[in-house]
Amino acid sequence: MSQGRTRVVVVTRPTPLELLIHRYGTYGQARFYLASRGQDIIGLEANHERVSQGLAQSIAAIPENQSYVRVSRDELDRFLFAPDDHVMMVGQDGLVPNVAKYLNGQVALGVNPDPSSYDGVLCRHAPSNVASALAWSHGEAGFRIEQRVLAEATLDNGQTLLALNELFIGHASHQSARYRLKLGDRSERHSSSGVIVSTGTGVSGWARSIVGQRRIEAALPGPEEPRLAWFVREPWPSVATQASLDFGQAGAGVVLEIDSEMSDGGVIFADGIETDRIDFHAGRSVRIQESARRLRLLMPA
């Protein structure tokens, strides 16, 4: 890829301070709101300053002969990525799964502008490292591409949903969900708090708490393994429902099928974004497996 041709797409999201000001109209109103509840705005200001400085440093590292465009997370569903874009996500780790489902082969790199606030599990690059990371495609050493597995849910009407971390299948209230779960020649009717299907990237997130609570000792998939782990949350056995199919793993080519029996409130959403969901009411079926797509995530070697 030529450095003069390849575009850098810089993806950001509003800081907590910006979101608070947007909600209450002015900085003064936002500060008053927090103060009235015994909280201080200083921490949000410090985070905003660090994120802003890290973003400015990251953009300044883009070579002058390389074009870039800045995109907010809220604009992703309307933005057209070019096949050879370099996609740079500056912010907290959650930005990476937000962007992943819109990519198809582009190189992605996550930048952590505030290590004191964000873990940097997926956003592994410091702003000071951006110039070297962007030069990777021209032979810069010290980096590698991870081919991160995505999960894919395909409904019987053709709708699809991709997830870098996990898919949730259940009731919008996270309470009793009724469905039939099928894996190979096994099938059960369930009443539960829903099903979580996790990738190797996602096992350090929502799935981690389930594994800890249930003391699951099975080896879970790694981020690049073509394998998904699925967990049934709080299955309730009764005269009409079972609870033996409550955890498993689906390797390459294996499909987990779920038939909805929920008259209303049934949903499927990805990576914790409940607003980006597919309705999953009675009569609908979904097939879940690893996607043919991979997130090409540039990481320090």
Give the helices and strands, then pairings:
Layout: E1 8-12, H1 16-24, H2 27-35, H3 42-60, E2 68-72, E3 86-90, H4 95-100, E4 107-111, H5 130-134, E5 143-155, E6 160-163, E7 166-171, E8 177-183, E9 186-192, E10 195-198, H6 206-214, E11 228-232, E12 247-250, E13 256-260, E14 266-270, E15 277-279, E16 285-300
Parallel strand pairs: 1-2, 1-3, 3-4, 4-16
Antiparallel strand pairs: 5-6, 5-16, 7-10, 7-14, 8-9, 8-13, 10-11, 11-12, 13-16, 14-15
Helix pairs in contact: 1-2
Q: What features would you highlight for this structure?
A:
Tumour Suppressor Smad4, 19% helix, alpha+beta, 301 residues, 6 helices
Plain-language structure description:
With 301 residues, the protein is α+β, with helices and mostly antiparallel strands. It is built from six helices and 16 strands. The chain has two domains: 134 residues; 142 residues, Sandwich (Tumour Suppressor Smad4), CATH 2.60.200. It is 19% helix and 33% strand. The strands form two sheets. Strands 1, 2, 3, 4, 5, 6, 8, 9, 13 and 16 form a ten-stranded mixed beta sheet that branches. A hairpin with a 6-residue loop joins strand 14 and strand 15. The mean pLDDT is 94.
